[in-house]
Each structure stands twice: as C-alpha cells, then as structure tokens.
Fold this sequence. Notes:
By secondary structure, this protein is of the alpha/beta class. The protein is built from seven helices and seven strands. A hairpin with a 2-residue loop joins strand 4 and strand 5.
Amino acid sequence: IGAGGLGSPIALYLAAAGVGTLGIVDFDSVDLTNLQRQILHGVSDIGRPKVLSAAETIGEINPDVEVVQHQEGINSENALKLIDNYDIVVDGSDNFPTRYLVNDACVMSGKPLVHGSIFMFEGQAATFLPGKGCYRCIYPSPPPPGMVPNCAEAGVLGVLPGIIGTITAMEAIKIILELGQTLAGRLLLFDALDMKFREVKLRRNPQCPVCGDNP
C-alpha cells in the first residue's frame, strides 16, 4: 500500500528478491518534492502516476515480476477486494485513516500485515499475523484529524523511509520463506538522530474492537 517513501524500497527489494506478483496501490502522481525519499521515481516521472513509474522501475530490476497497478486510493468500499488476491499486505501509507483501514481489512481477511511508519526522524515497524494481534491492539483508535501531520507537512529525513522500508521488506520475505523470527509480538522503534533501536512487546488485546474476543 503506497508507492512513496516506504513503498519504494519495499517494492524494489521484493522485486529484486524474486517475488512473482506485486500489487501496488497508490492514487497519487510524482511530485518534485517526493524525490528525496521516493527512490522508485525520477525527474522524468514528475507528473506521472506513481504506480506507472513504479512498474517501469521494477521492470528494469526484474522483468519477470508481474506488477499489478491499482491507481486508486484504498477505502472502505474497495479494501477487501484489493487485498483479496494477495498473500501478504505491506503497508507503507502515510496517514492514520489508511493504516487503520488496512489493518481492519487484513484482520477480516486473515491476511498477514507488515506495518511500517515514519515521522521526521523516527520510525517503527511491526508484523501482525492472523490471530496474534493487530495494529489496534497497540493504538485502539486514530488521533483526531489534523493532530499529527504527515511527511509532506512535517518533513522527514529522506534516508529514514529507506531504513524502515527495507526492514518491512525483510519481514515480508521472511514470511514468504517461513524463515527466522518475524516482528510478530514486537514493535520495533528506531530513532535516527541517536541511531538507536528499541523494542516494545505486543500482545493481542482480548478487548480489541477488531481482533478481540468479541470483535
């Protein structure tokens, strides 16, 4: 979800790793201000749909990858249909309504969700497997509209989404290969200014309105 700062390294590394089908959901077009962090795109792509630019870049890295372009925003009407044909959902969106929507759709569909988010100099990543908690177990409800600015409004260090994006790509690959230990049950927090990682343990909340005992 998203072909921006997080979606760029996610898509590039999944394609390079040989993931056979990548569906990319993004309604936006490339803007000059995107280029310091959205490495899927270049100057010649300014004004073009991000999904189209992404598909062409991916094709140069691995022409055997099928890129399904969803040039639309994800919303309550199309979310379940969009993710239905995919095995794993990786959320690289930049706003809270989309994060909560994608989380809820994944819980309802029984899909693994790899989450990444960034803000200025900080980022976080987590993996939510079916039946083992969800994003709402950490943050039950979104903040009021306008309370937290997105990257376009607050700014972000361009390298930061690359770091968080590659971590989430690694999580997706581990799920595919059934390899190692994912971030399921853990929230990974990264502070770029102090160059520190820390973890917070996560547990499924029985009172969660989406994945709890009485959803």
